[in-house]
Automatic annotation (TrEMBL):
Presence of keyword Membrane: no
GO molecular function terms noted in the UniProt entry: hydrolase activity
Organism: Faecalicatena fissicatena
Organism superkingdom: Bacteria
UniProtKB keywords: Hydrolase
UniProt KW Cytoplasm keyword: no
Name of the protein in question: HAD family hydrolase
Length: 243
């Protein structure tokens, strides 16, 4: 029986493409300029590919889809090294965090909900299910998003990149959520739109639920996730069938 659910954020609760794809397209040339690298089309496209973005499409197993800023910075620095350009990974991480946060937390930024998040979370909590967030986003950005949506208070737990916890699929957020509510691993479902979310669930003994509302297709989840849903809209029906 599921007693706790850890939701991914982008691509699972809110639309990924209108937020993060557009942010990546804006941040990349700004990042290059800060590092005194000419942000021409070839170089911009090269760095975007290092993030897993090509021709306006996001690789579901690419960096932008699921990695932390530290990991994205490492991928970009490694790619630039091949062109004879050396950047400090720590500085690159700071730049990416700042530029992305400025882009996705601005006053004019709007978030498209996959479903009525508040209504869904309240319905789950009425069933006695603890609800949490486990995202690769920074804590500042995650909280900003949830507060704009009016859903921050609905979450029993918010796990994000705070500079201390290791990113998914490492166990940190899963274990923190598990211990906070005295749950067994098999009582926790992880709902997300990437293979990384599936690994996060599987590695920690949870139930993996893949959703097709983000960067992944059904083929990406087949044989990997325990359940595959079109979106979190279908989660209540799945829980009823499981009960």
């Amino acid at each position: 029986m599921i007693r706790g659910i850890l939701f991914d954020k982008d691509g699972t609760l809110v639309d990924f493409f209108s937020l993060w794809l557009q942010a990546a397209l804006a941040v990349t040339p700004a990042f290059l300029e800060e590092n005194r690298i000419q942000p021409d089309k070839d170089m911009t496209d090269y760095v975007l590919r290092a993030m897993g973005v090509e021709d306006g499409k996001v690789d579901p197993r690419g960096a932008l889809a699921y990695k932390s800023y530290q990991e994205i910075a490492a991928d970009i620095c490694q790619a630039l090294e091949k062109k004879g350009i050396t950047l400090d990974p720590a500085r690159a991480q700071e730049q990416l965090e700042r530029l992305f946060d400025e882009n996705v937390t601005g006053k004019n930024v709007s978030y498209t909900q996959v479903t009525d998040i508040k209504k869904m979370l309240r319905a789950l909590k009425e069933k006695g299910i603890c609800v949490g967030l486990a995202t690769a986003d920074t804590m500042r950005s995650a909280k900003s998003c949830l507060k704009k949506l009016g859903t921050y208070q609905e979450f029993d737990y918010v796990g994000a990149d705070d500079g201390v916890k290791r990113p998914k699929p490492e166990a940190d957020m899963f274990l923190e959520f598990q211990h906070k509510f005295n749950l067994k691993p098999e009582e926790i479902a992880v709902v997300g739109d990437t293979y990384n979310d599936v690994v996060f669930a599987r590695n920690n003994g949870g139930i993996a639920i893949g959703v097709l509302s983000g960067v992944s297709s059904e083929e990406d989840f087949r044989g990997e996730a325990d359940y595959i849903l079109d979106s979190v809209k279908d989660l209540p029906g799945l829980l009823e069938r499981m009960d």
